[in-house]
Amino acid sequence: MEDWVGGWWDRLIRRAAYRGHPQAAVALADIERQAPVFFRAMGGDPALTVRSTVGAAHGARRRLLERVAGIGERVELGWRDAQSLYLPERIDLYPDAALNRELYFWLMALAARDDAHHGGDWFARNRAATAACLRQMPGLAAVYARLAAALLPLRDLPRRADERAQELAIRAALQQPHQAIALPPCAQPPQPVPLWLHPSPPGGGQAHCARRDGDAAAEDEASQRRDSKARRRYRARDGETDERKNGMLMVFRAESLFTWDEYVRVNRHTDEDDDSDDGAAAEDMQTLTVQRDTRRRASRLKFDLDLPAAAYDDTPLGPGILLPEWDYKRQRLVADHARIQPMLPRDAAPAALPERLLPMARRLRRQFQALAPERTRKQGEASGPDIDLDRLVRFLAERASGAAVAEPPLYQAWPPGGRSLACLLLADISLSTESWLGDAGQVIQVIRDSLLLFAEALTACGDAFGLYGFSSIRREEVRYLLLKDFAERYDDACRGRILALRPGYYTRLGAAIRHSSRILLEQAAQRRVLLILSDGKPNDLDHYEGRYGVEDTRQAVLEARRAGLIPFCVTIDRQAGDYLPHLFGRHGYTVAHDARRLPQVLTRLYAGLTG
Amino acid sequence: MAATDIPFYQPAGDECEVFAHAWRQQLPVLIKGPTGCGKTRFVAHMAAQLGLPLFTVSCHDDLSAADLVGRHLIAGGDTRWCDGPLTQAVRAGGLCYLDEVVEARKDTTVVLHPLTDDRRMLPIERTGEVLQAPPGFMLVVSYNPGYQHVLKTLKPSTRQRFVALSFDFPRPEVECEVVRHEGGVDAELAWRLVRLGGQLRQLGGHDLDEGASTRLLVYAARLMASGMPARRACEVALAEPLSDEPDTLAALRAVIDTQFGS
């Protein structure tokens, strides 16, 4: 009974004290697809991603009712760091949904304008950024005027003199951002200003963390997985290791209740639990202390303990093919250094195109049919069923004019249409494609979708194409998965193979490119395009890492280009700008900034490259 | 020629001087730059400035050598040779401008080779004539290197015969002047359009294939000058031409609202 009354009271008081307008709330998800484009247009760094932030305590005085209800001590504000733009997950500040939506756009414009190097405090910086926005964007100024005017009645005017002066200064700055005003000093932090950026954005815990070089990549991957799983950013704090050997969590029981997110080093084993409970705890914490200790978790170690038993592995086809590899230290090709093992994905049952891809596939088919060359009349043939009248008239006219002209080809023919183009798509399916991309699922999922849709599109336009996937375990086994051969018809068996793709192992890109080049060179087409779909740098368990892998891949690309192929790389790796120009040349690659849009990027690219 | 007859062109740098020097030294010029940044207008301006007749050919993928050089036609039971634009330009000692030259078939550009080195001659196979280009003749070609198109590039043997000028969208002050003059709007409105153009260009290569061109900004200005509401003018001139995707269009409208919202 007590519980029931308590819960009921809690709900009632919370609802009465809550200051937002849930009925007019706008969620970040509603504008998620426009947000990145808008932010970039405002001058925001194109490499940044948009994420939702969590509430942070603001420390300002709350209303009595809020204190009774125990809410209102946190507020979600927007901010930006080197990796991401953080926006509140939902905004329900105003009773009007249109205003809440406009607030999102305002925050993005402000964040794009905010200069981290600008001196001055939070107050001055926000005022300056606001003034800059208003000066340059008169349309946005109208929006801002509406937002600011609607905000003022929602703010409390404190009774204490110093707090009152502070609040008045903020109001003045909101109304007149062009005028330089200083924030009067006050013991109490000011009420949060939802129109401005975060007063003390967390300093990017990851950035300061000095990492061991060796496992940086593995850790990146792990943290990415965590990030994209939750897509939330917690205020991280860099902690120095507490030197006390055995910190006690509970010195005094009552106190510990209030201070439990203080960092205390507890001597306990690094366990490998699921992260689910940690996530809930993190939600409640104000600060996550990120600490390095000397222990490693096994999952970070780079062992390949997961070699499958033969019965469960993909089906190998034949004994394998030996290929050379480039050793940059010796500046020469080492013959027979890598073994390509062609394989068929195991358990691939014929399957139809998944339901969710049908609308997109239909659209692509229509679009690519337009690319298909029709059977067009070809003029000026030496033989053919029709006479080329134009040419005949021209020829007779020239002969009549007295100039001696040899008889040109004077017939028309209807040769089968063909752009004489062959395309091989090589997809990286190494273990890194297992990582998550938020709602879109795993990278491998996006790659599967891209392959499926790409195949639909190419079937529609009639170009010859082959689909292959690859991964590697050292140089002895570069697994080259046949998804669709050039000679094969694209049917449910191929779709089944694509759907059966699973991530695994490493990325020995050079060998895969060399083998793909060989296959592509066997195709009788005038122009042969080698498209590579990748999600990161070349790497493998042995020395195929860093420079060695990059140089070998570069060499393989150069060989392909010398052989007359057109290599081109599509990647979802944001850091690709660091190494891809070296591998493929400045115009030889493209980065899909939003991996979820990879299928669209890939097909549009193909149409653009060849259309 | 009176100054008013010279098409308006706002120089962004020393391109006019470079062009004039190249003309005096009888060197062919290659102009590269994105769509709608003023390449064609520049050539028209320079032709008028130098007092040369201008022969423009827009290249397409079916353009043959005969289309450039000329062909025999039948006129009243008789046959008559008819000069193509290139031959006309050589005979008149004028300026021949091949727009989007990469679109032309690869074999077409080969007829340009003897014209673009020190021989400066044009052999006409069908009439057996060999034309020597007069000092006034100049060949100008242009193309847009922005498209990542593996199948369409200029052959190095052709490229290496030209003095090349790289064009880009003009600096904001210059572009503002262009929009004001060409669009017939006041400076304040022109500034807003130029800033909007700058915002849209940030999206080139990521969300859009190419950013808004100066030409589109001028279109938007002209629609406004003829009385169209500013937002709608921007929508039809600056958002719709750039993308077909509903999400991108919605974002572009939000960007337009930052300049022309109410």
**Most strands sheet of chain B:** 5 strands, parallel
Count the beta strands of chain B.
Answer: 9
Class from helix and strand fractions of chain B = alpha/beta
In round numbers, the mean pLDDT of chain B is 88
Largest interface: A-B, 39 and 37 residues
Low-confidence stretches of chain B: none
Overall number of domains of chain A: 4
Rg calculated over all Cα atoms of chain A: 31 Å
Keywords (chain B): ATP-binding, Nucleotide-binding
InterPro entries (chain B): ATPase_dyneun-rel_AAA (IPR011704), CbbQ/NirQ/NorQ/GpvN (IPR050764), CbbQ_C (IPR013615), P-loop_NTPase (IPR027417)
Family (chain B): Belongs to the CbbQ/NirQ/NorQ/GpvN family.
GO molecular function (chain B): ATP binding; ATP hydrolysis activity
Key descriptive features of the protein:
heterodimer; A: 611 residues; alpha/beta; Rossmann fold; nine-stranded mixed sheet; four-stranded mixed sheet; 20 helices; 22 strands; elongated; B: 262 residues; 2 domains; five-stranded parallel sheet; two-stranded antiparallel ribbon; 11 helices; 41% helix; 17% strand; Nitric oxide reductase NorQ protein (chain B); ATP-binding (chain B)
Tell me about this structure.
The complex is a heterodimer of chains A (611) and B (262). With 611 residues, chain A is α/β, with parallel strands linked by helices. Chain A is 37% helix and 17% strand. In chain A, a hairpin with a 3-residue loop joins β18 and β19 (477-484). In chain A, α6 packs across α7 (138-151) and α17 runs parallel beside α18 (547-562). The longest helix of chain A is centred in the C-terminal third of the chain and has 19 residues, at 443-461. Chain A starts with a helix and ends with a helix. In chain B, α7 (172-183) crosses α8 (187-201), α8 (187-201) runs antiparallel to α11 and α10 (230-239) packs antiparallel against α11. In chain B, a hairpin with a 2-residue loop joins β3 (70-75) and β4 (78-83). Chain B is α/β, with parallel strands linked by helices and 262 residues long. Helix content of chain B is 41%, strand content 17%. Chain A binds chain B through residues 33-38, 40-43, 46, 105, 109, 136-140, 142-143, 393-394, 397-398, 400-401, 403, 405, 527, 529, 566, 568, 587, 590, 593, 605, 608-610, and chain B through 71-74, 79, 81, 126-128, 147-151, 192, 195, 199-200, 202-203, 206-207, 209, 247-248, 250-252, 254-262. Chain B: Residues 28-162 form the ATPase dynein-related AAA domain. Chain B: Belongs to the CbbQ/NirQ/NorQ/GpvN family. Chain B: One of its GO terms (molecular function) is ATP binding. Chain B: Keywords: ATP-binding, Nucleotide-binding.
